[in-house]
Write a structure and sequence with these properties.
By secondary structure, the chain is mainly α. The protein contains 12 helices and no strands.
Length: 257
């Protein structure tokens, strides 16, 4: 999340930003490809976190129960005596479709993505490692669908400046997504794919999602998440630290082949 928030977007948002004409997304996507390429190098040289195995059914319910709990909180909108807020009142987090539409479309997308194994990182990884273009067709379909929708709605505005929730620091747009791509490659999937896997009962994916939530909280509370004005004070430093940590993981968790 440190890398993604340095760029201000996950792989999906990078694709959607590109489809809307945001040139900064090109730097982010190039960084994503570079990060996955490094991750593919580790995979080819024996990187392995171990084989999956069956475990208790309760582990598989961790993420679905958490999401159901968040849905209940959203519907009830409780207010604690401490004044803690459960809903964003301004900014991107406050901008969303009505609940029923969001939930219905989200479930439809979840079903289709689960059946097709949609994964941005996986598409890049498979093309690099085995020249398999199957998953990439889904990525291309997402970009084209969003692009033509933007054209129809007159929302396609090419350029680099004045884009919503985006900055023009090319180095850290690129560097942030290098870190994100490398981390996703080492983890075995992009955020979307991990979310779908957690819905299938994958406990490792559930831990990944919980880690993303914790990482987002860290980034926003410790001045590492970028803003439209540019990288945060500690953002670049933590991107470099993250690259170092991921490289250590990649080099040290390899089996002899």
């Amino acid at each position: 999340m440190v890398g993604a928030l340095a760029f201000l977007g996950c792989p999906w948002r990078a694709l959607l930003r590109l489809a809307g004409g945001d040139g900064n997304a090109l730097l982010g996507l190039l960084g994503l490809v570079a990060g996955v390429w490094v991750g593919a190098f580790f995979l080819k040289t024996g990187y392995d976190l171990g084989r999956n195995h069956k475990t208790y059914a309760s582990v598989g319910f961790i993420m679905p129960v958490m999401m159901l709990g968040l849905l209940i909180l959203l519907i009830l909108s409780p207010t604690l005596p401490s004044g803690a807020l459960f809903l964003s009142t301004k900014g991107p987090g406050s901008q969303h479709a009505p609940l029923i539409i969001s939930l219905s479309l989200g479930m439809a997308i979840g079903f289709l993505a689960q059946r097709t194994r949609f994964c941005t990182m996986g598409a890049i990884r498979d093309f690099i490692l085995i020249r398999d273009f199957h998953l990439m067709t889904g990525v291309i379909g997402l970009v084209l669908g969003a692009f033509f929708t933007n054209l129809i709605l007159n929302q396609f505005h090419p350029g680099f400046t004045g884009k919503p929730v985006a900055h023009t620091s090319h180095l850290w747009n690129f560097g942030g997504m290098v870190l994100a791509g490398l981390a996703f490659a080492l983890a075995g999937g992009c955020p979307g794919r991990q979310l779908f896997l957690s819905g299938e009962g994958d406990g490792d994916a559930a831990i990944f999602i919980i880690g993303m939530i914790a990482g987002a909280a860290f980034a926003h509370n410790f001045a590492t998440a970028s803003t439209p004005q540019g990288p945060a004070p500690w953002g670049p430093a933590f991107v470099i630290i993250g690259l170092g940590i991921c490289s250590i993981i990649g080099f040290t968790m390899r089996k002899k082949i």
